[in-house]
Design a protein that fits this description.
Bound molecules: 4'-phosphopantetheine
Number of domains: 1
CATH class: Alpha Beta
Order of helices and strands: EHEHEHEHEHH
Structural class: alpha/beta
Strand order of the largest sheet: 3-2-1-4-5
CATH architecture: 3-Layer(aba) Sandwich
Helix content: 40-55%
Strand content: 15-25%
Number of helices: 6
């Protein structure tokens, strides 16, 4: 059976770093699901449907990519989708410590699913959704770090 992969995250909002990883993963795997976590604990700026919608718009050119919102455990979603692989992007060593712990706990819950790490490209290594929101909220220009159309959605959020 061909390997299905899941790339999970909060994507609040999707950045050029996320998109770069989606494009690389779509090249590697015959089927890729971008799984958007509702993640109420992080109090996202964008609703789940807004985040899904933005990712669908910017991945429309990738025919083997599906975008889905989810609540609950990632391993339960992976089980439902019969996905064998969870993909995570790594920017820094501090990312690695947290991601390693998550991979290990997910493996305890569901040993048949493997987590694979992909190092992010140097040109997008410094990007984070939280920093981008902070800069945009303070009136900074963040367009170059976001896929087309996302900066405009961010501007609308901060316009009152
Ligand atoms: O983009 P993020 O916020 O770093 O992504 C984190 C995410 C969504 C991958 C993680 O919080 C997650 O898997 N959430 C679903 C709930 C879950 O399965 N938790 C168990 C692992 S701690």
């Amino acid at each position: 059976m061909p390997l299905g992969a899941i790339y999970p995250g909060t994507f609040d909002p999707i950045t050029r770093g996320h998109l770069e990883l989606i494009e690389r993963a779509a090249y590697l795997f015959p089927k890729l699901t971008v799984a958007v976590a509702e993640n109420p604990g992080k109090d996202p700026l964008f609703s789940l449907s807004e985040r899904v919608d933005m990712i669908r718009n910017v991945t429309a050119h990738l025919k083997n990519v599906k975008v889905e919102g989810f609540t609950g455990l990632l391993v339960d979603l992976a089980r439902r989708k019969k996905a064998a692989i969870i993909l995570k992007g790594l920017r820094t060593v501090s990312d690695f410590e947290y991601e390693l712990q998550m991979a290990q706990i997910n493996r305890e819950m569901h040993p048949e699913i493997e987590t694979l790490f992909i190092p992010t490209g140097l040109d997008v290594n410094f990007l984070s959704s939280s920093m981008i929101k902070e800069i945009a909220g303070a009136g900074g220009d963040v367009e170059e770090w976001l896929p087309p159309g996302v900066a405009e959605r961010l501007k609308q959020k901060f316009r009152y």
